[in-house]
Specification:
180 residues; mainly beta; six-stranded mixed sheet; four-stranded antiparallel sheet
């Protein structure tokens, strides 16, 4: 049968997303993030924010990623969320419009922008130092698909305009896709 697992707070309790990986469920509301293993005892508030949580949450085998109006956050479902930051400058990274994440060759790639706007494009998350490395400038990353261990995505470059790009998750391999 069906049973209530958790009593969500009534204020700001609109559920935005429910995402599962092989360990936990993450539930996001307007300004809260909850974690659950499907039991009342295993369901808890992980984070309460002053800003709004993004509509979409991304799940990998070990992490959940969600955005807010001023930062990208990551959590493993058991510990406090942490902000994803630039490995060089330690600046916060921002999400625009939608959350686009891709798992390419075991690396978590995503579209974001740094705090001062000088790096806008594809980033790779390093789970060891919990920071991200900037790979390629591409304003906007849309409709990405993984094919043959490479991410092919629609992006925009000031010199090349809107076009398809391809990467195998390294900065030297991220190039415009050319047709012959």
């Amino acid at each position: 049968g069906t049973q209530k697992v958790f009593e969500f707070p009534q204020e700001n309790s609109y559920i935005k997303d429910i995402v599962v990986n092989n360990q936990k469920i993450i539930i996001t509301s307007e300004n809260r993030v909850f974690s659950s293993d499907g039991t009342a005892a295993g369901t808890a508030l992980l984070m309460e924010m002053t800003e709004s949580v993004s509509d979409k949450t991304f799940s990998t085998d070990n992490y959940f990623v969600f955005g807010s109006s001023n930062a990208l956050w990551m959590i493993n479902g058991r510990t406090q969320p942490f902000q994803i930051i630039d490995e060089e400058s330690n600046e916060q990274l921002y999400m625009f419009n939608e959350l686009y994440f891709y798992n390419v060759n075991g690396k978590l790639l995503f579209y974001s922008r740094n705090q001062n706007g000088s790096k806008d494009g594809i980033w790779a998350f390093d789970p060891v130092n919990k920071k991200a490395k900037f790979l390629f400038n591409s304003r906007g990353v849309f409709h990405g698909q993984i094919l043959n261990d490479k991410l092919i995505y629609n992006g925009w470059d000031a010199n090349l305009g809107g076009r398809l790009f391809v990467t195998n998750a390294t900065d030297e391999s991220t190039l415009p896709l050319t047709f012959t």
